[in-house]
Amino acid sequence: MDLMHYEAKQPFTQQHLLTxxxxxxxxxxxxxxxxLKLKAMQKAGQxxxxxxxxxxxxxxxxxxxxxxxxxxxGATQLGGTALFLSTSDIQLGRGEPISDTAQVLSRMVDGIMxxxxxxxxxxxxxxxxxxxxxxxxxxxxHPCQVLADLMTIYEKKGTLKGLKLAFVxxxxxxxxxxxxxxxxxxxxxAIASPDGYKPKPAYTAWAVANAEAHGSKVTVCTDxxxxxxxxxxxxxxxxxxxxxxGEAAKRMQDFAGYQxxxxxxxxxxxxxxxxxxxxxxxxxxxxAEVIDGPHSVIFDEAENRLHAQKAVxxxxxxxxxx
Length: 322
Fold this sequence. Notes:
Layout: H1 25-43, E1 55-60, H2 66-77, E2 81-86, H3 98-106, E3 111-115, H4 119-128, E4 133-137, H5 143-157, E5 164-168, H6 173-184, E6 188-192, H7 201-214, E7 218-221, H8 224-228, E8 233-236, H9 248-254, H10 262-267, E9 273-276, H11 288-291, H12 298-317
Parallel strand pairs: 1-2, 1-3, 3-4, 5-6, 5-8, 6-7, 8-9
């Protein structure tokens, strides 16, 4: 499949990006195709104006490097404006109902990206607001990261369907979103997590149903090497995410051995690539040998947050144009 010239099966009609489970395979492929085109245009110095005169409100309850920079720079490159709103600086952080915030912002801006804890907060913004809502990360899902991951995999492998991705570590928002996004595109997914840290059964069930419909397979196990065997893509995340700092010591013990290292690379395919959503803790979930080695494409992946999120903003706020 040539994603640069992908022909959509139907018009893009999504209003929000709350989770990739809401998007069809065609929706995701349209987004990836547009991301590749926007990246090529940016590299060629071609002007992009689809967000001209429009403003994205960026609400942050969790700190960020890649999410803030990619959305703010992306909106600017598309001709728009991005407005940073920390929850400590706005009334939402002082108890204003989300329904009020949603209705007020809907009258002032053209879209909201929120990076927060509860998925229900996004759903409330979408319910009470009248503008696009974009999930910049919640405790349940991280769809923008997975769009960048899929874009990177396509760039490095030239295809998506029929590949295998192995994720080793906590069955967290990254595991959930990877299972959902990959299973919708025909990519096999194997998740290796310790007992007590596996992905939520409801989201695993979504992914399994997606896989059955799209000719892929979802596996959840406890053996990292079993998951990594014959994988085209190796992936991991930190053992303790934001909000879990108090569990860090226990997690260090529970996740011992759940690491992408030379042994994991040895059982994967020889040309396997390594991905990480970052920030990374070398010596914990991944060895320096892997993350700084020839299989790692983490900085291409990080850059693609910019291009993938520009595609999301273009589709949801700019009429799908560059």
